[in-house]
Amino acid sequence: MQRAFLAGLVAGFILPFVGCFIVPKRLSLLGDSSSHFVLASVALGALFGISGVYLAYVVVVVGVFVALRLVRGFGLSGDQVLAILLSLSAAIAAVAISRGARVSLGSVLFGSVLAVSIEDIVAGLLISAFALIFVLRNFGGVLLYAVSEELARIRGVNVGLYEALFALVTGLAVAVSVRVVGVLLVTALIVVPVMAGGVLVSSMRKAILFSVAFGEASLFFGLLLSYFLDISPGAATVFVLLGVLAISLFLTKLGLRL
Amino acid sequence: MADPVVVFDNVAVSYVRGVEAISNVSFRLGPREVVFLLGPNGGGKSTILKAIVGLVRPVRGVVRVFGVDVKSFREWWRVGYLPQNATTFFERMPISVSEFLRASRVVREGLDPIEALQLVGIEDPEGVLGQRIHDLSGGNLQRVMLAASLVNRPELLLLDEPTVFLDQNGVAAFMQLLDRLRTEWGLSAIIATHDVAALSTLASRVICINRGALFDGSITELVNSEQLCNIYGFHVYLVKHGH
């Protein structure tokens, strides 16, 4: 259970943290698409007898990078590109499974905190530390990159480098977190805390703080709920997240702005 | 003669193979010169500004900024740029005015956020600083975008439709500000607009664009020529006020 809480702590930080930059870029479904890459990687790994976990790290990072390049280079909208990649990864997974790959679909789709290894937690901590330090040291550039690549470029921001790092951090964060909350619930942790935090506050710094706090609190109470009610931890977390979002929206309607 | 700030030499830009958004456009912008780009929608005004900041690459010709080919130009803090529809960038984003102005400032000698807001005529700059950009009125939002383009004390300012959301007083104050910065900072500016009314005596020069450069001269010459009629399809007359 200790390991489960530690894994939840890491996922509760890194997913809302990257979500603060994914959602404004109108790539909210990036988590969904990239977590389907994990499913495809696990299925391919099982088919060819290689570690699906390590394959997932590479495939997801490359997948996110390709998605960003398609949006920027071909003028396609984010939802079009993400729908294409989501279909592609689901198709690859279906082919691998139909060819005899044995995949524990339940744990891939809904997560299995008890199956999380110490290596996964260390990897998550390293990614979180890297992302936090990079954003703190380059806050202005990251902010402009999130607002508009045009504005960022003419302020001297190396947009190509930021794009590569964005893909790297997002991809690795998703690959690690899928083990905790599952393919289907990664998007919830990327999008819902950011929405709940974003509507309440007037600055990006506060939005990051609130989103991460909501993510952590939801995972903590979600894990507790799952333990006492004997339900899936991912599902319990989503119920808590949606409760937090409902309260935030209600407070916004009352005119609260922090 | 002083070195030109911008040189456009026979430039063509194409977004779709075989269709040129601008063709064979040539002009020079001198120091402290303010040029208005005038033309209809889709005429290529924004494309010219984007080519100057390197956001689009010419298929022919050369663009030079401060004497350097734009492909190798790196001193972007010397250029302030206000893109068209910049106000839409902040939809659904919880970014404060303070955060945006601090992020836009990349040189130590730049203006601090309060100075920048005062410069563009924002009343109560301290109050506005902590506000979420998307919560601002259209006029204040446009002023904040202008402040962000001025925050590094640029030598060249490129503005795409800067007078949208501004009322007549706002437009007049904006023109006075440009005139002041031209004198105090030695600012040169290119302003893309189809707001013919916004052109004032400040517009020492007007370039009419409709895929190619149709006219390059003073506003008086422009009004006396047939070019405005050719571009807009109706006659435009210059009305001189007594104040």
Quick structural overview:
With 258 residues, chain A is mainly α. Chain A is built from 12 helices and no strands.
What does this structure look like?
The complex is a heterodimer of chains A (258) and B (243). In chain A, 81% of the residues lie in helices and 0% in strands. Chain A is mainly α and 258 residues long. Chain A has one domain: ABC transporter involved in vitamin B12 uptake, BtuC (Orthogonal Bundle), CATH 1.10.3470. In chain A, helix 2 packs across helix 3. In chain A, 52% of the residues are buried. The mean pLDDT of chain A is 84. Chain B has 243 residues and is an alpha/beta fold. Chain B has one domain (6-232): Rossmann fold, CATH 3.40.50.300. Chain B contains 8 helices and 10 strands. The longest helix of chain B has 17 residues, at 168-184. The radius of gyration of chain B is 18 Å and the shape is globular. The two termini of chain B are 34 Å apart.
Low-confidence stretches of chain B: none
CATH homology group of chain A: ABC transporter involved in vitamin B12 uptake, BtuC
Strand-and-helix sequence of chain B, N→C? EEEHEEEHHHHEHEEEHH
Overall 3D geometry of chain A? globular
| Percentage of β-strand residues of chain B | 25-35%
What distance separates the N and C termini of chain B? Answer: 34 Å
- In the CATH scheme, what's the topology name of chain B? Rossmann fold
CATH superfamily of chain B: P-loop containing nucleotide triphosphate hydrolases
The total number of structural domains of chain A is 1
Enumerate how many helices of chain A there are, as a single number: 12
Task: Kindly report the average pLDDT value of chain A.
Answer: 84
- Number of DSSP strand runs of chain A: 0
> Could you name the CATH class of chain B?
Alpha Beta
The main β sheet of chain B shows up as:
6 strands, mixed
- Which structural class do the helices and strands of chain A define? mainly alpha
Quick one: overall form of chain B? Answer: globular
The top-level CATH class of chain A is: Mainly Alpha
- Low-confidence parts of chain A: none
Roughly how many Å is the radius of gyration of chain B? 18 Å
Radius of gyration of chain A in whole Å, from Cα? 18 Å
